[in-house]
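Input (structure):
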């Protein structure tokens, strides 16, 4: 079957891999000149079932309200006249009950654990390099109160079979010796030994090169502008400069820009762009970098090591499609990571980036078909798309083949 994958981020490229394995003739279409040039470009890099909590929680509304008046909040709400922001925010708030938080988090962690199995399989099958680092992730807490809350919250994940351990600062320093000089700053940590990290952009681009060498076509610099349909099927996509591209089936993996095109298909995707910031620095030769990644939970600042680089990420900003940034936007996250790893990287050589996460109100992705039976959706993976990508790819390929996926997709199917 001829299958066109719309989008060459980590979601689209991993889906293309599964489709190729299933024997399909695959074409991947993206408006940018390279794979992983949008959300997957410089994300946190944590492959973290142990941090699969949904952002829509009972504490989120208070944080968003405080962000209107106080700097330094992990979630920031920037009011605008965009009606999509207000409609999406209302749905987000509706998911901030304790019951819905529990349901959505459990759905997320099940998908993340399944996805990790698929990542290991893909890496084994292809040999693709992505600066993968195993050995777990550390979730660090600075105060006894936050440590107690964080330890208690792990129950919702451990009920699904994920191993998480509350540990002392001494134990954390044994796992990551770079923490030894600063361990007294922490009340404790939660350790997820199966969590890992890796560069999503390196993975995606290397996997794309692997696919190209095996006959998968990539149409870069090709912007999708519309669709041709007949009855209940899509017959081709229309592009700007690339002509029309026909296929027997399509995978819709367009991330934050998907809602603009999905309306032409009669589908209103509940996806809104949530802005995040990252800064990447070289480690240098005489530093004391982290040996495993993690999160400073009190500041909600994540960090990961990719070979000779260190990346720090933070912030969820409800600010529409604006990707602008200035050095001042990175002050809080750099101060937090320097406090933990004062010799962790060459902080004089920062590379700044801001990107948009394709968030659903629930925090879970969207699968299935709408009005057109051969347009399959695999989109809306939010802040842990890297963690969800390999599993979501296998699910999308199974759905296209008419197979029952390995996971129950309750709450993750497209509502036509």
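Output (sequence):
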């Amino acid at each position: 079957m001829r299958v066109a994958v719309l989008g060459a981020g980590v979601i689209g490229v991993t889906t293309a891999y599964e489709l190729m394995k299933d024997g399909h003739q695959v074409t991947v279409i993206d408006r940018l000149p390279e794979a992983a040039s949008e959300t997957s470009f410089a994300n946190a890099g944590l492959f973290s079932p142990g941090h699969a909590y949904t952002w829509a929680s009972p504490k989120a509304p208070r944080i968003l309200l405080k962000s209107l008046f106080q700097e330094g909040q992990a979630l920031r709400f920037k009011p605008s006249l965009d009606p999509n922001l207000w409609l999406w925010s209302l749905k987000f708030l509706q998911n901030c009950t304790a019951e819905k938080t529990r349901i959505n988090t459990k759905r997320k962690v099940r998908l993340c654990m399944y996805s990790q199995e698929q990542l290991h399989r893909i890496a084994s099958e292809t040999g693709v390099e992505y600066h993968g680092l195993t050995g777990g992730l550390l979730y660090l807490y600075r105060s006894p109160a936050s440590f107690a809350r964080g330890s208690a919250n792990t129950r919702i994940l451990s009920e699904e079979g994920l191993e998480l351990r509350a540990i002392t600062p001494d134990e954390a320093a044994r796992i990551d010796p770079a923490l030894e000089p600063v361990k007294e700053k922490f009340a404790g940590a939660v350790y997820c030994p199966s969590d890992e990290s890796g560069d999503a952009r390196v993975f995606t681009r290397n996997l794309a090169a692997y696919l190209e060498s095996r006959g998968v076509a990539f149409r870069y610099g090709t912007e999708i502008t519309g669709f041709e349909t007949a009855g209940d099927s899509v017959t081709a996509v229309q592009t700007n400069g690339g002509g029309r591209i026909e296929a027997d089936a399509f995978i819709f993996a367009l991330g934050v820009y998907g809602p603009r095109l999905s309306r032409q298909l009669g589908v209103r995707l509940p996806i809104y762009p949530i802005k995040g910031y990252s800064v990447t620095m070289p480690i240098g030769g005489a530093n004391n970098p982290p040996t495993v990644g993690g999160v400073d939970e009190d500041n909600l600042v994540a960090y990961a090591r990719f070979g000779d680089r260190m990346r720090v990420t933070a912030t969820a900003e409800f600010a529409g499609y604006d990707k602008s940034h200035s050095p001042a936007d990175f002050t809080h996250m750099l101060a937090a990571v320097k406090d933990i790893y004062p010799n962790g990287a060459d902080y004089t050589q920062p590379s700044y980036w801001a990107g948009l996460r394709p968030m659903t109100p629930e925090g879970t992705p969207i699968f299935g078909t709408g009005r057109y039976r051969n347009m399959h959706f695999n989109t809306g993976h939010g802040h842990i798309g890297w963690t969800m990508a390999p599993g979501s790819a296998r699910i999308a390929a199974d759905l296209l083949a008419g197979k029952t996926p390995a996971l129950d997709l309750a709450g993750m199917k497209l509502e036509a």
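Notes: Residues 98-126 form the longest helix (29 residues). The mean pLDDT is 94.
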